[in-house]
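just leaving the lab so this will be short. what follows is a protein written twice so to speak, once as letters and once as structure tokens for the fold. can you read through it and tell me how you think this chain folds. anything you notice is useful, everything is just below:
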Amino acid sequence: MRGETYQNTTLPNLYEMLNDCSIDRVMAIDDQWCVIAWNKTAVLVTGIDKTHIIGKPLLNVFPELQKDKEMIDAIQFAMKGNKSFLPARAGLLNRQSYENHFIPLTDEDGQVKGVMNIMHDVAHREKAEKKLQELNEALEQKYRQLETATTEMATFTYISSNEIKEPLRHVYTAFELLVKSEGKSLSNGGKANIRRIQASLNRMNLLLDDIWALSHINSFQQVRNTVDLNDIFRETLIKLSNKITEKEAIVTADNLGVVPGYKDMLQTLFVNIIDNGLKFQKPDNPPQVQVTSHLLQPNELPGSFQIKEPMVLLTFTDNGIGFDPAYADRVFIMFEKLHSSSHYSGSGMGLTIAKKIVEAHDGFIQATAHPGKGATIQCYLPVE
């Protein structure tokens, strides 16, 4: 008897309680389109109490529904035993947006006895989507402005560097002609001063080239391709052949494999790092530079990287003068020089550019060294 009471009385009450707990509007009609369920959310939204709607024909309570073909079609479709759905649209009683779900109610024999309509308020979601769209549009506008500014800066840097380099060439040539034409009347000190001026002009020329290269990296917009690092290494040997021959250097590499990247940038990376290994040497010490490549799995990468994909580790090792390991991060700072510029030529931007190139490939770069024991530059590059 108690079980029968629970089944016949308590269970329907439980269903009604569950419906009333829903934040969605829940309504049900029988196969005659009379309302048989109307939860508390429906009461709050419409202002129509259960006692005024239960048992009444739906279209009598909401005659405007007869003009809503989509809603009528969806109910009729559900009456045939099919679930149906109407995407978000304005409700009949207010302009809030609702999603409508229509679920057929069947008996034990599978016969449709009615339809449940669940109306889900999506106004908050639409507000969030609208806000997100506004933020995306603002971000896109900022990106376009940044893109324009970057392009303008690159153009300005290129034009400026070329405009400055032209008079530098004229000044250098003028001093060269002066030494040739007036060399006999110039003192040795005067000639030495002119050579120092020419050396400074050459350094300024290198500096302008590196400034242009750095700005070009920041505005680079090509698609990454598969790059054979062995080809890059061979091209680097050709570019540095005069210096390698002059210093009697030995530059070797393992099979370096391939990476996705920008060929011109990777060429500059190799040239700058290997050139550093040739440059910062002890007197009468033939330079030796070795390049190796290893594929590292995520668990083999330094923990600070927090990378979940494998990476290629390119290692450039030289036998040069090295540097204090306390300054390992400073070698990548623009114009930072750990050694006297009077002994070692250059702009002080080689490793700065190398760092920018590695970062443009979504990679990382590190330097380790000890005074008098050479230096090691490690470049971590993604393989995908």
